[in-house]
Amino acid sequence: MHALPQIVKVSSELEGRERESESFIGRLEKENKETMNEKISSKVEDAVDYKGFPAERSKTGGWVPAALILGIEICERLSTMGIAVNLVTYLGGTMHLPSSTSANVVTDFMGTSFLLCLLGGFLADAFLGRFKTIVIFASIQTLGTGTLAVSTKLPNLRPPSCHSNEDCKEASGFQMGILYLALYLIAVGTGGLKSSVSGFGTDQFDEKNEAEKTQMAYFFNRFFFFISLGTLTAVTVLVYIQDEVGRSLGYGICSISMFIAILVILSGTKRYRYKKSGESPIVSICKVLVAATKKRNMDFPYDSDMLYENTPEGSRIHHTNQFRCLNKAAIVAEGDYVKNGSSMDPNPWKLCTVTRVEEVKMMVRLLPVWATTILFWTAYAQMITFSVEQASTMERSIEGFNIPAGSLTVFFVIGILLTCAIYDCLIIPLWKKWKGKPGFTDLQRMALGLILSTLGMAVAAVVEMKRLSVAKSVGESTTEKSLPVSVFMLIPQFFLVGSGEALIYTGQLDFFITRSPKSMKTMSTGLFLTTLSLGFFMSSLLVSVVKKVTKSNGGEGWLANDIDHGRLDCFYGLLAILGVINLGVYLVVAAWNKKEDKATEMVDVV
């Protein structure tokens, strides 16, 4: 009888221990689950470290590696702009080329630099990755600036000095050939480098992490602000050294700065986040176009869910009815599958996923904005060509110090920096409080940039009318090298176009990166930079056409070799009129994009 209570007691103790054991196991499982979640959250999706392992959030990315990446872009801008803004005076004053020819050499050089961004983007996306692309092409640019420094140092590579217009001899074909070799090595380097820098910078921030997403919102504006510091140094210090000390020293500094930048970016190898290279975006686009063309006569299925899709759920892009002809690439038809061992796989040139089709549509949607922002860079081209020539004819001395003509572009850079600073420190916080959004939208910034550039060209036309009137009144009555009119009259046109660039560049960069597919971001950046390229090429074409059309009866037309005998004001006025027309087209395109954005949001909600 006494044993029963004892047995019950022992049994209850065992049950209690069992419950404690179960509770302990439950806590252990919960802790293990939390630990696993923490480990998962500490990894950055779609990014790896320098060893190829999943990137650790705490050990990679963020502002430190992003700052190193900004460093090479600052040096690239220092190098490229240090050459471009003062090249027109070297071509005219040392190589003895006509005014319009000098302007076209500069714009063709800059145009090629930005056009080659497509090549750099293709190589980065398909083969090299952004980091290797940056290092390789930065090395090519370093070689180009070094070659340019040597070509300007050796007397045999430039024509003899002249003392009058009749005595001047233009540079020979060999001399220009060496100069072109140096310039286009720089152009290749710039093209490959620029297409990857901004994309590699944004790779250091995770869009799916709220804290890093906020940091990325500031990256685009700060990216442009800091590279503008490179431009500021170029148009002040470097231009002064080129004019007052020597071209070869100025270009040598460019080469050394690029070499140092390569060392700096290599120093951050262990801290970067890397995105793996995949299939070339150009090949992906071609596959969709080929498949859609082959099935152009086929009827659409009654239900869009019948279109082919095997992309993982988290990476899918919803089907849309826009550009319906491309949807035919996702229609399943006989012969679309090929035997691969024991399984049947789709032929990618005959059948594409809905997601792949939608990625191509996203790129197509970029094109109208791309086309309507080209003219801005045509106006911009005048700031480093004809506006610098204007400055070279005007009074530039202050208390005995003679300002180099190329250094007038400092006001252009000041306009950029002030606009970036005001936007970053004032507009973004105020707009966030008022509208709940961090500043103007990308489309609004581009519109403001187009308006400011058009105003800049109108002001430039008025200022040139004043300068020409002074040149006409002075005539041959003075032996002074410069006209009695202050060079500071040019400040408004530099400032307006500079402020416009700050808005349109950051707006374009934001637009082309955030609205393109993840797999095509580098190519999208290259596409954006081709607007700069085509803007410069359009400037060259416009100069050639205007020179030919306005030249008659022995006269030199609007764009004379000596701008004092031309009508540069009419050329600026033409650009202002074209700017107004282009702005009207852009507003229509922007309204269409806004409508499509709302339609896409509704699809995502559904």
UniProtKB/TrEMBL annotation:
Signal peptide segment: none
Subcellular location: Membrane
Topology class, membrane: Multi-pass membrane protein
Matches recorded under Gene3D superfamilies: MFS general substrate transporter like domains
UniProt keyword terms in alphabetical order: Membrane, Transmembrane, Transmembrane helix
GO (cellular component) term, any one: membrane
Biological processes per GO annotation: oligopeptide transport
GO molecular function terms noted in the UniProt entry: transmembrane transporter activity
Pfam families recorded: PTR2
Main location: membrane
Membrane-spanning parts: 109-128, 135-154, 174-193, 223-242, 248-266, 366-388, 408-431, 443-463, 483-505, 526-546, 571-592
PANTHER family cross-referenced by the UniProt entry: OLIGOPEPTIDE TRANSPORTER-RELATED
Similarity-based family: Belongs to the major facilitator superfamily. Phosphate:H(+) symporter (TC 2.A.1.9) family.
The protein's name in its UniProt record: Uncharacterized protein
Organism: Deinandra increscens subsp. villosa
